[in-house]
Specification:
Number of helices: 4
Shape: rod-shaped
Largest sheet: 2 strands, antiparallel
Radius of gyration: 32 Å
Order of helices and strands: HEEHHEEHEE
Helix content: 55-70%
Structural class: alpha+beta
Strand content: 15-25%
Distance between the termini: 40 Å
Length: about 190
């Protein structure tokens, strides 16, 4: 009799482990996390896990593009912020250097019809103007990166949030029953 009970328990454990091994993990909720999604425990999901959880069309048409938008936007925002900072410093330094060059006679002017026109300048004045021009150029380039990067990042994040919201809505409105292993043995889990 003991052998039959042991065999029955072993068969149940084998069947339960087979069902659990083949059962797909389905988090109860998803949320947007950086350039992807995470489950209710804060575990960032891989692209393969997301592919298994959501509709294939939503994955291909929305998820992939949203991740790319978010990543591209983040990179452009970081590059834009750094470039804007360097450009601002360059513009200020170039302005100060140009003002110093003018005040200390590194630039000479002549009057033409009541206007002062640059007649001569030396190397220090030329470098100051070039520094100012480079600063303004970097400042403009950084602003362009920011003005493209921030909207891309926001749009990508909103699209990822939409996917998570749709998944969460479907998860709440559906019930499922599965067999799972616990610390104390096998059991039934019902999510609704």
């Amino acid at each position: 009799m003991k052998k039959i009970i042991v065999l029955a328990i072993a068969a149940i454990a084998f069947i339960a482990s087979g069902v659990t091994a083949n059962a797909q993990y389905r988090p109860s909720t998803l949320s947007q996390h950086r350039a992807g999604l995470e489950d209710e425990n804060g575990h960032a999901l891989t692209d393969q896990e997301v592919f298994q959880l959501i509709d294939e069309d939503v994955y291909n048409q929305t998820y992939v593009g949203a991740c790319k938008q978010y990543k591209t936007g983040k990179i452009l925002t970081i590059v834009g912020a750094a470039t804007t900072g360097v450009g601002l410093v360059g513009t200020i330094a170039g302005s100060v250097a140009t003002a110093y060059a003018i005040q200390n006679g590194h630039v000479t002017f002549e009057d033409q019809n009541g206007r002062k026109v640059v007649k001569e300048y030396d190397k220090q004045a030329a470098l100051a103007v070039v520094g100012f021009a480079a600063g303004v150029t970097l400042l403009a380039a950084g602003d362009i990166c920011l003005s493209v990067g921030i909207p891309l990042q926001v749009i990508g994040k909103k699209r990822l949030n939409w996917i998570a919201t749709e998944y969460n809505h479907e998860a709440v409105s559906s019930a499922n029953l599965r067999i799972g292993l616990t610390n104390y043995g096998a059991g039934l889990v019902m999510n609704f």
